[in-house]
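Side project, low priority. Logging it here so it doesn't get lost.
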Amino acid sequence: MTKFLQSWRKRLREVANAAPAPDPRAEATRRGADSPPIDAPAAASPVVGAHDLLCVQEVSVADFFVGELFQRKFHAPPPDFPLHYVSFYRAAASDIRVIGYVHYSQFEDSYLCGGLVIDDRLYRQMPAPHREAIRRDGGIAEHLLRESFARLAHAAAIWGYVGDTRAERVDTRVGFRRTEHPYVMVCWMRELSDADKRARMSRVVALGPF
């Protein structure tokens, strides 16, 4: 992780937000006094998109990075088995924070996707140009899923168990599709016969919620 952070910080020192920082008093009023704004860089180059602000990395231990966030959202500790992908947000050249997490567990030659969580508090503290750049590229969750999917391109499929309409919209944008099961969605990563897809679907449904 040290090598990754050093190289990323070096690259990102060249890319930051040229727009003036928002008025802290106005931002605090909008969000509430208990959510201080993140100071925007005083002088820098314009932000191009989410890739300038977010970086997704696989980590070996989730609790170290997202324990508090996961507990706040799900009232439980994060999974203690692979795979863990964390989204890091560069608030400033030397200020890198965790803003998202998603978990994958291997099932046969595919993966079960779950535990997606985004730090909405940190998102609300971002300077407006940062929020706009990320929103323009689909949002934090979409960026996290797309990046982690790219690392799992060798899989036959990625499965999701979805019961939230907003989450389903994001999942659909990254390639998930509905199945005959009301909560199970799938993103096929390779060409498979219809019979093979049905057989795989049956085995996943038999697992229950994941």
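Brief comment: The mean pLDDT is 86.
Revisit when time allows.
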